[in-house]
Amino acid sequence: MTLTSFGPANRIQRSAETHPLTWRLRDDGEAVWLDEYQAKNGYAAARKAFADMDQDAIVQTVKDAGLKGRGGAGFPTGVKWGLMPKDESINIRYLLCNADEMEPNTWKDRMLMEQLPHLLIEGMLISARALKTYRGYIFLRGEYTTAAKHLNRAVEEAKAAGLLGKNILGSGFDFELFVHTGAGRYICGEETALINSLEGRRANPRSKPPFPAAVGVWGKPTCVNNVETLCNVPAIIADGVDWYKSLARDGSEDMGTKLMGFSGKVKNPGLWELPFGVTGRELFEDYAGGMRDGYKLKAWQPGGAGTGFLLPEHLDAQMYAGGIAKVGTRMGTGLAMAVDDSVNMVSLLRNMEQFFARESCGFCTPCRDGLPWSVKLLMAIEQGRGQPGDIETLLGLVNFLGPGKTFCAHAPGAVEPLGSAIKYFRPEFEAGIAPASAAVPPLAKPIVVGA
Known about the structure:
With 451 residues, the chain is an alpha/beta fold. The chain contains 16 helices and 9 strands. It has a 5-stranded mixed beta sheet with strand order 1-7-6-9-8, covered by helices on one side. A 4-stranded parallel beta sheet has the order 4-3-2-5, sandwiched between helices. A hairpin with a 6-residue loop joins strand 6 (257-263) and strand 7. Residues 346-391 form the NADH-ubiquinone oxidoreductase 51kDa subunit iron-sulphur binding domain.
């Protein structure tokens, strides 16, 4: 994994003024432990928050900075914090870090946890102070064994230094933090499914309302934030709202910086901290280096497998939620994937939909039955056995599984790339439809959903 800076390919050094998330990274890729982290101004923001700011001031600062969730949904963090109850008699509250990074083609949180574990802990400590939560959990993807080891060591270092536990920094505030490794389900990225899993239940999303801020872990008020979101908090507290907003490019409605990346057959696949508002073309050409020799860019996804495909002409879109929405899809996690001209889109979509069908919790009918149905149709088309009407059926599934028609956002994210692939590459799907004379009558070849 590579991580460069604002300038192309290592020409400009990262600095605290421009790279709030990554300036402390070591060149050798090793983890930054407590002594080095504190030597690099670590926990200074926490000390400021505890000494000079009350809880409401911390919440208002984060809200004014315009920080939004970095897990994909992009909900304003300060607004989410403001939903937590004000009633002082509710003395049991929880802060959960969503570190269940199972979105295909996304590894940004892994880098932060493996190399800067204390940045996440400091972000959670300040957030806990703002939310009056006495206990926190990092719900970690089970396969992230190195991250688990580094986070547990960092937690013990922070405890020994009086930065976690009882009477933190002499303030009278207590905060315990635990690392919890999950059992490996994509659906745990949905915050209420994560809560169910943490409680030892099946990882099904919950009905909302009530929202976690009212009824969360073990029935208590709970706030769930993504790793990268929480890692932004210390810099906002330390350096202020105006500075944080100034980091984004003109035209961006999202503030600050974002970990963005590119994978696929590009010359320099990697991960970079960049200002919101850079264009997809800058990310693709200046940082990822364009396609490897012998390959052409056919399509790209801007932020994980659950975002729609875009064409090369869409590369001039600005990388922020509204900028990507203008070309018809979502920013997602901000880690893009290049699809080269050797890839058959039907095969690619069949692979994706197999993943999403397998990871469905099975709670609601459209997702439980619709996704396996799409897989069967795509398999038939991939093998040249598609029947007339199959493409229309797939488009019908895209509609039936769209936003607002399923219990959670899993199915809408699963079918978004399918709908865009048919939109832009329909001839590849039509090529898998057998001639009418060779097609099997639909009633003679039933589709058994879930078989």
